[in-house]
Amino acid sequence: MPPMVNSFQLPDLRSFCQPHFELRVNPRCRNATTLSECWIMDNGFMHRNQKPGLRGAKLGLLAATCYPTCDLGQLRFITDFMSLLIFSTKSMQLSSQLWQRLLYFRNPYWHARFQEHLHGFHEAQAQIARDRQHNAVPDLESYIELRRYSSGLEMAFDLIEYAEGLKLPEYVFDDPIMQELRQNAIDIVSWSTDIFSYSVDQGRGDQHNLVSILMEERHLALQGAVNYAGNLVKEYIETFVDNERMLPSWGDARIDEDVRVYVHGLRDWIVGSIHWAFETDRYFGQNTEEVRTFGWVFLAQSGKEKHKN
Fold first, then answer.
1. What is the rounded CA–CA span in Å between residue 97 and residue 101?
2. I need a labelling partner for 170 at 20 to 30 A (CA). Which of 85, 255, 258, 284 fits?
3. Could you read off the pLDDT of 44-99 as tens digits, one per residue?
C-alpha cells in the first residue's frame, strides 16, 4: 500500500495548451455575471447563503473564456445555464424561462440533440448517485464513458452553435472526425477537471475521479496517478490538433466556415476551462493564488469542500 501523502504537484496543463490554443476572454464578462447572479437569486434557484459560493465560483468568467465572442444576451444565458447546471441540478429540467430563451434559436435538430444530451446528463448523474449509495466504483473504461455524460459538456458544446449563431446540418456531426474531435475535447476538459478537483473529491470521499481510479486500477501512488492523468490530457490535446487537420471539406464554403468556427469553440473550451481553474475557488479555495504560482495542492480535509460537476 502506498504511503499516505498530503499534497501533490499539478501537471502544467496550461503549458500543454500554449503551443496550440489562444486564450480569449469575452469583454462582456462583468455585466453578464452581475445580471446572471441577480436572476439566479431573484428567482429562488439558490438560497441566499449560497451566494458567496456562486460568486467565488466565477462561472461568468468560465462562460467568458469558453464563449469569448458572443453578445451580452447570449453570454448571460450561458452563465445562467452553467450556474443551474453546477449549483442546482434539480432545476435542470430546464426552467421554463431558460427554455423560452432558447426557442428563438430555430434549429429543430439542435433542440432534439440538446434534449438528448440533457437526458444523458441526468442519467449519468443518477448512475453516480446509485454508485455512491452502494459504495461502488466503476473501472477505468466505464468511468471514462460515464464521465463524458456526467460532465454536461455535450450540452456545453451544443451551446457553441447557439453562441455563434451556427446551423450546422446533421451530417456534419455524423462525420467520424467531427465526432472524434468532440470526444477528444470532452475527455480533455473532464480529465483536467478531475485533476484539479481531486483534493475536493477525496475530501468528501468521492471515488468518481480519474485520479482515484488510476490509483486503484494501475496501483499508482497519488503523484504517479496525477502525472498519468496529466500525460493523458497532453496526449489527447495533440490528438485533437491532429484530428482537426484531418477535417474534410463539405463542398460548401459556408458550412466549412461554420465548422471552423465550431471547432474554434471547442478550442476555447479546452484552454478557457483550464485557465479558469486557477481563478475559481471551487478547486483550491483560499489557496488558489498559491496553487496558480507554485502548482502544489494540499489535500482537503474530509467534509470541508464543495461539489464539482
1. 6
2. 85
3. 888 888 889 999 999 999 999 999 999 999 999 999 999 988 886 555 556 667 77
Question: Whole-angstrom Cα distance, residue 31 to residue 34?
Answer: 5
Lookup result for grid cell 484530428: 243
pLDDT (tens digit per residue) in 246-295: 999 999 999 999 999 999 999 999 999 999 999 999 999 999 999 999 99
Query: 49-53, long-range: CB within 8 Å, 24+ apart, which pairs?
Result: 50/87, 53/87, 53/306
160: three-class secondary structure by DSSP: helix
CATH (one of 1.10.600.10, 3.30.70.270, 3.30.2350.10, 3.40.1190.20) for 7-19+103-298: 1.10.600.10
Handedness of CA 147, 262, 85, 194 (dihedral sign): positive
> What's at 191, amino acid-wise?
W
* Domain-wise residue ranges, the chain: 7-19+103-298
Q: Beta strand pairing status for 296-298 and 7-9?
A: antiparallel
Cell numbers standing for residue 88: 442546482
CA atoms within 13 A on the CB side of 167: 5
